[in-house]
Amino acid sequence: MEHLLYGKKNEALATSYLKKKGYTIVANNYKNKIGEIDIIAKFNDCYVFVEVKGRMSRKFGDPLEAIDARKQQKIRMVATMFLKERGLLETPCRFDAISVLGDNDAEIRHIENAF
Asked: How far is residue 19 CA from its own chain's centroid?
């Protein structure tokens, strides 16, 4: 259960970070029958689908290493359904990743066009 709370905290940090950078948050934890996307935001006219990964340390690798090809494909499929449901298939979009390393005073890295 504690890891779920840590994940929610990381997503909240990432959401706050994006807002400070001028992103408009469209949805947090968007779910459909295929899966979930942590954050959907808009930046200018582009929809940004964001996967957030956190670790307390690099002991078990970089947080972003957990976003493997299978996870990326699933996020793409969920995003496509999101865009299709809203008639936005022609809208520009991209896939970003945010890593949160640590707990208090966490290090946040934002990778645009991560995959």
From this structure: 13
**Adjacency order of strands within the sheet including 46-55:** 24-31, 36-43, 46-55, 93-101, 107-111
**Residue 108 burial (10 A CB sphere; 0-12, 13-18, 19+):** middle
Query: What are the structure tokens assigned to 8, written together?
Result: 């929610």
The predicted model scores a pTM of 0.91
Q: What residue numbers bound the domain in which 12 lies?
A: 2-111
What CATH number corresponds to the domain at position 40? 3.40.1350.10
| Nearest-angstrom CA–CA distance, 4 and 73 | 23
Residue 29: the pLDDT is 96
Domains: count for the chain: 1
- In this structure, the number of other CB atoms found within 10 A of the CB of residue 93 comes to 18
Question: Which run of H or of E encompasses 74?
Answer: helix 69-85
